[in-house]
Every structure is written in structure tokens, then in C-alpha cells.
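Human: If only I could read C-alpha cells as easily as an amino acid sequence. Take your time, and here it is.
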Amino acid sequence: MLLLAPMEGLLDATLRDVLTRTGGIDRCVSEFIRITNTLLPERAFIRVVPELLNAGRTRAGVPVRAQLLGSDPHCLAENAERLAGLGPHGVDLNFGCPAKTVNQSRGGAVLLDEPELVGRIVAAVRRAVPAHVPVSAKMRLGFNDDERAEDCALAIAEAGADELVIHARTKAHGYRPPAYWDRLAEVRESLPARLRLPVIANGEIWTVADALRCQAVTGCEHLMIGRGMVTDPGLALAIKGQGTVPWHVLPPLLAVFWTQVSARVDRRHRAGRLKQWLNYLRKRYPEAQAAFDELRLVTEPADIEAWLRRAQPGASLTTEPIQVPPAEMAPAC
């Protein structure tokens, strides 16, 4: 099984839609929905996971699991219960975000210094949602070090999680290579047989060779891919031995991406979003490098659209976006 990772500020619903059209991805996890001291209205979940309006799936039919981030077991449980009523393909809990602003508000990877709290959060959410709704968690190896990695994995398993994704780095490592797959293997193997849940490996999977080596080192059959899939939209297909995605397939997908960005993003930021993706694609495709060079200083949407028309003559730049309701406040939990 290959999962598409969440990436705050990059791999959102728009890019999930486009990347799952290329094939190979079995399930997505959304970027996090931050939970503080409020019971969020339904539209707050839909804003981050508009696939909830499409039976919890991308347009290509790939299921999406919604991710929550926070530190209060009670509020997380209440919000998970409401979210579960919207039909996501499971609820995921974020114990891996390395962002300083998130960690300062006791969210993400900072909680890995408190395995007992991690366990209470997972247990509270597991109790709050129906038994048929999977509950999973994503963690790093630790915050400043990996000394409590086994404790956190055990707490998550004992609390009743159905799956565990481990990003094979600590918060202190950030995204710098390498990923410590051997350490991930130790954490997986430390779980007692009675608590052996599926462990999914994440981190530094850029090629088919990386995927095979990660599976061999970690002992994990299942993988989660983020930046590697953004860079090479055919990576999941290639890992499964089902081919690749040549460049000529991508301009129409760039047009779909642009149309959806135009529907969701402020005008002044639209060009930046397209160039952000091209910046990744140019590591894999020479044609993307040429496109990036041509558009590097372009900021006007009309100029972007003119380039997209030249890249795929005769194509339309219109597609129907999922309508996302505006946010509203909700009463405190």
C-alpha cells in the first residue's frame, strides 16, 4: 500500500486531486486540522478536506483520511466524533509536525516528549469515533532526540490505533537527509506481538530504489511518500511496476492544478503556487526546468494562463472545483 503524505502549504486538496489522477496511490492523508479549545463546525473540516463532499475521496476515487492536530484529548475526541460523521476514510492524529509555531502551541512533534499524553489522545479519539472508522497516528522518531521513540509507538499501539506512520527523523533533524530507516526498524520491532499494528515507513523515498531499500531496511511493507511524489508524479506507479508518467501528461495536469488554485487562492499568490510545484518537478523533468526558467519572474495570472495554453494547445483551463464553504467560529468544547 502506498500513501500520499500531507505537506502543509504544498500537498493540499488541490495537489491531492491532481496527483491521484496519475495512479498508484492507495490512500491520502490530509494536511492537519488544528484543534485548540473549540468544537469546530463541519465547514471547518470541509475547508481542509473538501473531499468530504465527494464521499471522502478525490475525484480519481482515492480515499482520504483526515488528520487532526492538538494536545487536548477531550477536544480532539469531540472534534474527531464530529469529523467521523462527515464520512472520512479514517481519522489520523499528527504527532510529527516539526514547525516551530505548531510546537510552541503544544502540537505536533513536541508531544513526543510526553508518551503518556500521546496515548491518552489516541485512546480518547478511539473511544469517540465508531468502531468501523480507523484511527491512525503519524509520529517522528522524537523531538530533540529519539530516546522515547519506542515509548511513543507503544503508547499509540496500546491506545488502540489501527495504523502508525513513522517519519524516520526527529524534529531536530527536520527534513535533512538521511532518513534513519534502521532506527525505524528498531521501533517497529520493539512492539510486542500482541500489539503489532501496521507500521508505515516515511522519509527520503524519491525513487523506486529508495522504496525497495526502505522496505528492506525497515521491514515495513507499506510506505508513505510526500516530496518524492510531488517531484515525480509517476513514482507510485513505478514502485508498483506499472510504468511512469512522461512529461507530455503533465501540462494538462498543471492546467487542472492552476484552475483549482485560481478558485481557492488569492490572485497575488496563484503564480507562486504553480512555480512551487514546478520547482519540485524540475528535479525530475528537464521540461519543467525550462518552464520554471520561463515563468520565474511571471506574476500575472493572465501570463500564466497564456503559457499553459502554449504548453497544451487547444486545451480548456476550466474545471469545476469542489465548493468549499467559508470558515466560521464555534463554541468552546
